[in-house]
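hey can u run this one w/ flavin-adenine dinucleotide bound, need the structure tokens asap thx
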Amino acid sequence: MKKYDYLVVGAGLYGAVFANQAKAAGRKVLVVEKRPHIAGNIYTEEMEGIQVHHYGAHIFHTNDRKVWEYITRFADFNRFTNSPVANYHGELYSLPFNMYTFYQMWGVTTPEQAQAKIAEQRKAAGITEPKNLEEQAISLVGTDIYEKLIKGYTQKQWGRSCTELPSFIIRRLPVRFTFDNNYFNALYQGIPVGGYTRLVERLLEGIEVRLNTDYLAEKDALDALADKVVYTGPIDAYFGYRLGALEYRSVRFETEVLNLPNFQGNAAVNYTDSETPWTRIIEHKWFEFGAGSDTKTVISREYSSEWKPGDEPYYPVNDEKNGALYAEYRKLAEQEDQVIFGGRLGEYRYYDMDAVIAAALSRAEEEL
Ligand code: FAD
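ok here u go:
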């Protein structure tokens, strides 16, 4: 008899949801986390009374009622609606592209006028078969929106010119001919009151958690404690990178406390020109309608950066090379019958939070 039924590696959202379900089913669970804190990449920490999203802005949104009902058992959510603003050399535009954007760009006031403007620019560009991202964007939204709102931002994000990027990246662009600045088409949306870390604390209530514990460094000793392992770390690291390292795209954050009550009046402002080195600035207090200090604010500048082995992994690279390498690791994973590989790193895929919760709930249902 081992001491625990499950050893959960990683105290991120996947691990926390699985651990919570396992405990609720009467199983004994130990969670180990190599960072000095729980909550994985949704970790928020309080600065000046403001919940700061340490690994990038996180906005919860879902159409899945089951996920919403589940997660709201652990936190109240506020009514935050994601409505980013684009700043192009000091000109401000509403996002996603909608009637407000078209009015700001061209002074048009009706959908018909906006559609005519886009059609006119598309025709002038004379693109029939878009060969790259630039041509694809122009054929979808015209030259002005491409030049001011897509070109610089996309180049910074990918570190490559839009003429060198494939068109499929923006096969569809959210374009609306209504006055609607709500970025997500989701039935449920918001930010957990008190921050994501508190939400994860509640998921892990009554469960033993060991921080600063790298599973891979103490694998034999930890494996000896539990019947089964739920591994939410990087799949290639689990196998000692024996087939090579999977690649990621990275982001770097520079967080600053400013002696100002209000820096930009919105949670997210995207800098869409190519000269500004950051892609966007997040002002964290506006996720909570100005919570915290009346005299200070906390902002984070985001920079896209090339990923090198050893950097924090953010976005999996969904190209052929990495897809094929992941498929090889997946075969190895299938031979580990006492290990469940889950979450964004364990499955090497981009997962929104609601999808990670749904995946952990369904795995727990199969398992428990
Ligand atoms: P993680 O949160 O990464 O948790 C895995 C944990 O395992 C980590 O804490 C890690 O330290 C730990 N670990 C790894 N290896 C070991 C080891 N050897 N031993 C012990 N512990 C280990 N989703 C949304 O729905 N809305 C958003 O607005 C949104 N914004 C995002 C912005 C950015 C920049 C990024 C990158 C993602 C965003 N997401 C968003 C997605 C969201 O972050 C993920 O859905 C979520 O974090 C996935 O949880 P996870 O548990 O799979 O992974």
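Residues 9-15, 32-35, 40-42, 56-60, 214-216, 232-233, 251, 314-315, 343-345, 351-354, 356 surround flavin-adenine dinucleotide (CB under 6 Å). anyway lmk if its weird
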